[in-house]
Amino acid sequence: MSGIVVEGLSKTYRRPLAVEGVRALVDVSLTIAPGEAFGIIGPNGAGKTTFLGCLLGFLRPDSGRITIDGHAPDDLAVRRVTGYLPERLVLDRWMSGRGFLAYHHALAKLPAAGRATDVDAALESVGLGGEAGARGIRRYSRGMLQRLGLAQAMLGRPRYLFLDEPASGVDPAGVVLFRRLLTDLKHRDVTVILNSHQLDQVERVCDRVAFVRGGKVEAIETVAAGASHARMLRVRAAGGAIGTRERLESLATSVGASLHDVDPPQARFTVADDASAARLIQALIAAGVPVAEATPEESRLERLFLDTPPGASS
Amino acid sequence: MNATLIAALWRQRLTSPIRLVLLGSLMGMPLLAVVFMHGAGLSALGDSQGAVLVLGAGMIGQDVSSGVLQLLFARPVRRPDYVVSRWLGVAIAASAVALVQLGLALALMAARDSLPGAQDVFLYAAGRVIESFGLAAVLALFSSLIPGFGDLALYFLFTLSASVVHWVGQVKQWPWLDRAGSEILASLQPKLDLAQLVHASPMPWFPIVSYASTVTLCLALAIVAVNRKELSYASG
Question: Reduced to 3 states, what is the DSSP secondary structure of residue A17?
């Protein structure tokens, strides 16, 4: 069967001299279809990284079974079509960025004839072309390391891409770049498994999201990847003078937002993103609305994060 | 065997100033002896222990502790291939160091017209190569067991313990303890006395089998140890 199939996966870390081990995963079962972008979210210590470790064949589960395209995760046939970006990225710091990618290109057993071209293309794709690629890795910033790590993971156009906090330590421009790259990968039918605390990023990229807590998958949510990620902005006016519905509608439309409802002294607007929210607040203040408070409401995943009670079934 | 891994190990070693300085000293000091000590023969060049320890320290453990193994094993690389490649990389590099040193020594000896015989040179060179491959296997085992440069500490600990056992056996005149110490020491630095082997008749097979089995056992145990490793910071 193609895709990723996980059945009854459990993993406990045994500690020397400890009576009981730490249960990191408890009877996890799920399937990830080929070409799907699958997000994994949950609080720290939920078992997300352990789950990724098992999917990659780095950790041996106590029980249960994982297959990727019908093979065990550590099968070389799987490794040939897999890309991986770990959260704690440790690179061979004595290499240059270009040398590092050439090394992984060779390890991936990709054709040597296209090595230079592939490496340059990978560096360009993450904004590390030219002098940056020739620089020694020990002189890279945290964000540059993360970009290089992503370039490494995408070498050879893998069919499965495992990303553990890919945008960690990356500047805002890098976050936008990563999001664009992930969207491109999705369009190329790459199966992306994304573990991230950046719920906004997960919501924008993923088709489905598993919420993991206490080693269990508590919920699997389908999110409309690629759809509009409009946010709700709640605005409260001082003294109850929020203004008329018509006036608020006109102001919202002038900055590309829309009025959702009015309940003096509050009104709720739909905004496309943070920049749109900022423009709306500016317009309201300029029009004399005494804005006392402007609060973005939680995204769908944030609500899932906050609302899912411990022990809820998937 | 994975040529990419071997080449990467060499490049890594060549970018380590500490290793290069130590290696230069280990190569240079015996050559100074050849220059300044009249009549100094090939034995003045010593053995391969220093070069193997300098080049091999942390050959697996350094990758384990730094965390680069995760990215490496996400690639289509078999763990036994990784272990064998690290062993070969260190052994070949140490052999090359020994042979370069020998070449320089022979050039110096030729300049003063005191070249040793061709057979002696060949046996010496082959002995150094065999010793490099043997000791590299022992270090590969230790390095697979302990992260970082713990392999060096383990090697010296074992060597010291075996020396003490050997010494106590001699002082107390307990032949069994003396023999035990000698065997452990021999296992920690597997090598063959080629001159003795070549000139003996019939050829004694025990040292050859003993050397081969030590190297094979060390590599097999190193592979088992690396195969059993779980690679995740979540497990730490």
Answer: coil
Six-digit token string for B154? 């383990």
**For the segment A151-168, what is each residue's pLDDT rounded down to a tens digit?**
999 998 899 999 988 877
Which three-class secondary structure state does DSSP give residue A229? Answer: coil
For residue A44, the distance in angstroms to the closest alpha carbon of chain B comes to: 11
Residues paired with A11 in a beta bridge: A25
Whether chain B has a CB inside 8 Å of the CB on A60: the answer is yes
Mean pLDDT of chain B: 89
> Is B70 close to A58, i.e. CB distance below 8 A?
yes
Measured in angstroms, the CA of A304 and the nearest CA of chain B are apart by 24
Q: Could you please report the per-residue DSSP string of A150-178?
A: HHHHHTT--SEEEEESTTTT--HHHHHHH
For A52, name the nearest residue in chain B, comparing CA atoms only. Answer: B232
B73 chain-A contacts, CB cut-off 8 A: 57-58
Query: What residues of B are in contact with residue A91 (Cβ under 8 Å)?
Result: 68, 71
Contact A184, A154 (CB under 8 A): no
Residue A92 in contact with partner chain B when CB distance is under 8 A: yes
In this structure, the number of other CB atoms found within 10 A of the CB of residue B156 comes to: 12
CA distance A211 to A30: 12
Spell out which residues of chain A touch residue B68, defining contact as CB-CB under 8 Å: 90-92
**Strand A22-32 relative to strand A82-85: parallel, antiparallel, unpaired?**
unpaired
Is the bond preceding B147 in cis, omega lying within 30 degrees of 0?
Answer: no
**pLDDT digit string, tens, across residues A36-74:** 999 998 888 888 889 999 999 999 999 999 999 999 999
A159, two tokens: 């069919």
- Residue B96's pLDDT is 95
> What's the CA gap between A223 and A200, in Å, rounded?
11
CB B57 within 8 A of CB B148: no
Q: Measured over all CA atoms, what is the biggest interatomic distance in chain B, rounded to whole angstroms?
A: 64
DSSP SS3 for A88:
coil
With residues binned 3-state (H G I as helix, E B as strand, rest as coil), the percentages for chain A, rounded to 5, are 35, 30, 35
Residues A112-126 pLDDT 10s = 998 999 999 999 988
Q: CB distance A53–B235 less than 8 Å? A: yes
pTM of the model: 0.82
Q: How many CB pairs under 8 A join A and B?
A: 78
Mark yes or no for CB contact B235/A87 under 8 Å.
Answer: no
Q: Would you call B71 and A59 a contact, using CB atoms and an 8 Å cutoff?
A: no
Return the percent helix, strand and coil in chain B, to nearest 5: 75, 0, 25
Interface test with B, best of A101, A107, A139, A152 (most B CBs within 10 A): A107
